[in-house]
Amino acid sequence: xxxxxxxxxxxxxxxxxxxxxxxxxxxxxxxxxxxxxxxxxxxxxxxxxxxxxxxxxxxxxxxxxxxxxxxxxxxxxxxxxxxxxxxxxxxxxxxxxxxxxxxxxxxxxxxxxxxxxxxxxxxxxxxxxxxxxx
Length: 134
Fold this sequence. Notes:
The protein has helices spanning 28-41, 57-63, 86-96; strands spanning 4-5, 9-10, 16-17, 20-21, 49-51, 75-82, 105-112, 120-125. By secondary structure, it is an alpha/beta fold. It has three helices and eight strands; from the N terminus they run ββββαβαβαββ. The two termini are 27 Å apart.
């Protein structure tokens, strides 16, 4: 299995895409390292890391090693790949709708195919397309 695959597939948000980031091939040791990498850049304390099923669950478990378990701190929502950002927004709206976006939660993804929302950061981000072309 390869991390980067040239293959036609439909994204979670229904987009037809011609390449895929296949995070199922990332080992547990690599997920742990990715969590460490995120923590090298994230300075905010967080109560708990919550991984969006399916891609963010393993990452969330490793990020929970850094959580405060203090319910006064915001939650960290994580996922593997962000394409449109819809999954992050849907998850936040479903589980954290009663929380303030500035103080109640924030997000991280490993890969972003597009610019994430202001409340989400990414370790690796694809460049923006100009008129459909790079």
